[in-house]
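Let us practice reading a record.
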Amino acid sequence: MTKQLSNISDIATEKQNVPGQMTPVLEISPDDGLGLIIRGMVAQGSEAGIPIYADLRDSDGDPLPTDTAIALEYEAPSMDKADTVSFIQDNIRAYNSLAIDEQQNVENIDAVKHVLKGTQEAQAEGKVPTVQVRDIDSLYVSLKGDTQIDWAQSALYVDKNAVRQVS
């Protein structure tokens, strides 16, 4: 079954980023006994990737600086630190220039897709790249920029076609 993930999901926790460091701003941890499979290919647009729609703002209500970097990170209990599982996008221009409904448009969706590492290899083997998040793991959306996010004025969610909840 597909699952909508957003900053207001019951399995998501909003976090405050540390300026100048790649730090989580959203932690996604499945409920006990459940897991998530995040598919690295969504049949919308022409490119591989996970569509993440966002309106990222600071405490003044201004968009975060365009040179803010964004990435997906994964952490399991056995790991010393989170591992970056997507390629780092070094700017958020698409988020700043397009409203969320425009980001969802098939003509713009590729601009907000996040490509998982290993995607080319998986495609060559005829597989879909995935990140599997167990109930003891965490998936993070992380940012690196000079300005802190203000969740009272921001929104972020993952396209529901990329997320499957499993038990």
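A brief commentary: The mean pLDDT is 93.
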